[in-house]
Every structure is written in C-alpha cells, then in structure tokens.
Amino acid sequence: MSKSNITSSECKICGDSASFSHYGVTACQSCKMFFKRNAENRRETLKCHFDDQCEVNINNRHVCAACRLEKCFKVGMCIEMIRCPQSRNKRKNTISSALVP
C-alpha cells in the first residue's frame, strides 16, 4: 500500500510538508507523484546537466529531474511498492461489484 502511516512531518526528498509514507518513505504529494511517473521508465534516460550535484529542496525540486529521482532512491523509495494498473483496476472492480445489490 502506498499510504501507511500518518506522520505529519517533512518530505525526505524536498523538505515540503508530508503526512503519509509513500513507497516506503515519508514524502509529499509532489514527490510521490514524481516518483510514480518516473521510477520505472526514466531512470536511465534522465541526465543531470550539473555533474549530479544538484540540491533538491522545496524551492528547486523541479530544476533537475535526474537528481530528484536519484534522491528518491537514496532515501529509500521502492519501485516494488508502486501498484501496477491491473492491480488498481482489479481492486476497483472488486469494490464496484461489492456495492452492486
């Protein structure tokens, strides 16, 4: 499950406020969605133009996607915790069929 504990602290990637653990790390919604969109397909294609030394924080988290994604992995975000679309659809269908009288 992507949400586990309510933590009410700061995102381990950018420092923004975060209330939940996503993919194994306390993360804000922005970093959660960034990781979900980029983790599986873009790790090899993203390139840093500044020698992989970019600081990732709330003010500049959009500047370098390569360094942001690398920081996601360094702090412990886990690809395996991202549910595949088939899994989401299966859950949706199960919930829908349970609601039908």
Task: Give an overview of the whole structure.
The protein has about 100 residues and is an alpha+beta fold. It has a single domain (about 5-100), classed as Erythroid Transcription Factor GATA-1, subunit A (Erythroid Transcription Factor GATA-1, Chain A). The chain is about 35% helix and about 15% strand. It is built from three helices and three strands, in the order E-E-E-H-H-H. It has helices spanning about 30-40, 65-75, 85-100; strands at about 5-10, 15-20, 25. A three-stranded antiparallel beta sheet has the order 1-2-3. The longest helix is centred in the last third of the chain and has 15 residues, at about 85-100. This is Nuclear receptor domain-containing protein.
Give a concise summary:
By secondary structure, this protein is of the alpha+beta class. Helices cover 35% and strands 14% of the residues. The protein has a three-stranded antiparallel sheet with strand order 1-2-3.
Q: Helicity range of the residues?
A: 25-40%
Overall pLDDT metric: 82
Whole-number radius of gyration? 16 Å
Structural class: alpha+beta
Strand content: 5-15%
The top-level CATH class is Alpha Beta
Amino- and carboxy-terminal Cα gap: 28 Å
Number of strands: 3
Report low-confidence residues grouped into runs of 5 or more: 87-92
List keywords for this structure.
101 residues; alpha+beta; Erythroid Transcription Factor GATA-1, Chain A; three-stranded antiparallel beta sheet; 3 helices
